[in-house]
Design a protein that fits this description.
With 348 residues, this protein is α/β, with parallel strands linked by helices. The protein has 16 helices and 9 strands. The protein has a single domain, classed as TIM Barrel, CATH 3.20.20. Helices cover 47% and strands 11% of the residues.
């Protein structure tokens, strides 16, 4: 167990095996202005060009010590494969979906599941993963995909999706079923390209959007199916749901995800109690009030608290803000490495 490398450590945590210490990783987006300047790899090219995407992903490891590399840096890649229109890409803003792909029901019925090797921006991400695989050695490569629930919301529009939960749930579930098929294909292609871990992201499944019953009906079954299929690929999956997920943590654990990534609004001790030995808990430094606006000393103190409360892997509670200071990220990594693993609490 001694002298684990970064890849071995993360995979041990995700495989419910003992690690020499907690890793410090980022399952979510890692692009910041300071890392762009340090690496010479900037947005929008970091979204459009696989070499630039690779270089910026590497920057989080090379310049601040994050013990993983992660692509892509935005959440419109999956919808772009279906032909959704995305915004122009600029330095200080990630691409956004401007127009839903499925304005009419008949449009959906004739829509085929995209091919991740050819459609939308997915091939750019896959090529970046192949480039990372040739460069990183023992650093784990994380590929982010969008959950079927979130992708369904993106494809038909979030307002319509919320309405369809009550007025046309059969149609909404049909959209998510097709989104699930694509998510599995994308994860498979990412694994074949060299990804070590999949992060499945959902921005629309927390208690801010869904009740626990709605989560179990409209999000959890499709997330669980992706988890099951990714398990067959022989790589682990981390499930990240933005916002306060306290009320749905038991259901998140039941998806079969190897890890759950929690926002700063969720208590680590409670999350560990719910997760038990079924899944690893990642988190949960706030990307804004702490990593963006805090001091290195405050970041170090918060990191230590997360570890004492029993988190399995230190990580930001969501994607990094663009202006995040590199010194704060270094403080998070340093505090993780220097922590005494014997001080960590265990779930009761």
């Amino acid at each position: 167990m001694n002298n684990m490398n970064e890849r071995e450590r993360l995979l041990a945590v995700l495989g419910s095996r003992e690690a020499d210490r907690a890793p410090c990783v980022c399952p979510m987006q890692t692009g910041t202005l300071e890392l762009m300047k340090a690496s010479g790899a900037f947005w929008p090219e970091g979204h459009e060009d696989p070499k630039t995407m690779c270089a910026l992903s590497l920057a989080a490891h090379r310049f601040v010590g994050i013990e993983s590399v992660r692509v892509p840096f935005e959440a419109s890649v999956d919808a772009s494969a279906f032909g959704a229109k995305t915004s122009d890409q600029i330095l200080v803003r990630r691409p956004m979906i401007l127009r839903a792909r499925v304005p009419r029901r008949e449009d959906f019925e004739s829509m085929e599941v995209p091919d991740p090797s050819t459609d939308g921006k997915v091939p750019i991400v896959l090529e970046a993963i192949r480039s990372l695989k040739a460069k990183v050695g023992n650093v784990p490569i994380i590929c982010g995909i969008v959950s079927p629930h979130m992708l369904g919301f993106q494809l038909i529009g979030d307002q319509r999706a919320m309405m369809d939960m009550y007025h046309d749930p059969i149609f909404l579930k049909a959209v998510m079923h097709k989104a699930k098929s694509f998510a599995i294909s994308y994860a498979t292609a990412a694994a074949e390209a060299g990804a070590d871990v999949i992060t499945m992201v959902d921005s629309f499944a927390s208690g801010d959007f869904l009740s626990p019953d709605e989560y179990r009906e409209f999000a959890m079954p499709y997330q669980a199916k992706v988890c099951k299929e990714v398990e067959k690929l022989g790589i682990p999956l981390i499930l990240h749901i933005c916002g306060n997920t306290t009320s749905i943590l038991p259901s998140m654990v039941q998806t079969g995800a190897n890890g759950i990534s929690i926002d700063h609004e969720v208590g680590i001790a409670y999350a560990k109690k719910i997760a038990g030995d079924k899944t690893a808990v990642f988190g949960n430094l706030c990307p804004t009030t702490m990593l963006l606006k805090g001091t290195p000393e405050e970041v170090a103190s918060t990191t230590s608290r997360c570890l004492v409360e029993g988190v399995d892997a230190v990580a930001p509670g969501c994607g990094l803000a663009l202006q995040t200071p590199s010194d704060n990220l270094r403080a998070m990594v340093k505090a993780t490495k220097q922590a005494d693993p014997r001080r960590r609490q265990r779930p009761r």
